[in-house]
Design brief:
The protein is of the alpha/beta class and 251 residues long. It has seven helices and ten strands. The strands form two sheets. Strands 1-10-9-6-2-3-5 form a seven-stranded parallel β-sheet, with helices on both faces. A three-stranded antiparallel β-sheet has the order 4-8-7. The structure holds 2-amino-2-deoxy-6-O-phosphono-alpha-D-glucopyranose.
């Protein structure tokens, strides 16, 4: 029996409002106790309405992120921070430049670490998550291969932050943004499935009919490393927030 549930919303914006209000509540209640919150963040088009709503809560409703530490799931290898398609740029453009998270609390894997130093860099990333107290909340999207972060098919359940070879399907999906598949990096650094599954709460977002079949596989298919999102079925506090189109094959 899957432990993982799903909720269906009228629109991505409606789901984003509910989720942003939950996360805002967590941030405020921790601030009231003088404690930090550790958020695991994701990239892609899917989280954009959620990030817009967090920025609005900051701008219009005084939500402060001064007690927040962030860890992103992944980064393309070979891209410097300032590259237009780096996840560093994405996160700053779409969220971090619009809220008051202290710059020193923002963590993303490096896309330019020399190859020989990647294992140490990944071990350090894991250590920083542990030292921050672990992930209170992890946001996820889902790729066409069923990946969470960049955990492509074959990623073990207990995998940790590491270098990964990107699946051709993933690279094709990224090709338009990069102006052609030849410009898409072949590798990335990603948190592992094990890293992600240690988060105390996980919310996976998916919108649109293109995600319907992989959402069904993730929630109703066998739990195995061919669809890394299927591991969420065994997490005690993971939920999928879907719009009607993405949920169409479940109901
Ligand atoms: C990339 C990211 C994932 C994301 C996926 C889906 O592969 N590394 O974190 O979930 O794309 O992207 P989109 O949300 O644009 O569909």
């Amino acid at each position: 029996m899957s432990l993982c549930n799903f909720r269906v919303f009228d629109s991505p914006e409606a789901a984003a409002r509910v989720l942003a209000s939950e996360v805002g509540e967590l941030i405020r209640s921790r601030a009231g106790e003088g404690r930090q919150v550790v958020l695991g963040l994701a990239t892609g088009n899917t989280p954009l309405p959620f990030y817009r709503e967090l920025a609005r809560l900051h701008r219009e409703e005084g939500l402060s992120f001064s007690n927040v530490t962030t860890f992103n799931l992944d980064e393309y290898l070979g891209l410097p921070r300032e590259h237009a398609e780096s996840y560093w740029t994405f996160m700053h453009r779409n969220l971090l430049d619009h809220i008051d998270v202290p710059a020193g609390n923002v963590n993303l894997p490096s896309g330019t670490v020399p190859e020989a130093d990647i294992p140490a860099h990944c071990a350090d990333y894991e250590a920083r998550i542990r030292e921050a107290g672990g992930l209170d909340f992890q946001l996820l999207g889902i790729g066409r291969t069923g990946h969470i972060g960049f955990n492509e098919p074959g990623s073990p359940k207990d995998s940790r932050t590491r270098r990964i070879h990107l699946d051709e399907i993933t690279r094709q999906d990224a090709a338009p943004a990069f102006g052609g598949i030849g410009n898409v990096p072949t590798h990335a650094v990603t948190m592992g499935c094990g890293t992600i599954l240690e988060a105390r709460r996980i919310v996976l977002l998916a919108w649109g009919s293109k995600k319907a079949s992989i959402v069904r596989e993730a929630l109703r298919g066998p739990v195995n490393d061919q669809v890394s999102a299927s591991f969420l079925q065994e997490h005690p506090n993971a939920v999928f927030y879907l719009d009607r189109e993405a949920a169409a094959e479940l109901i």
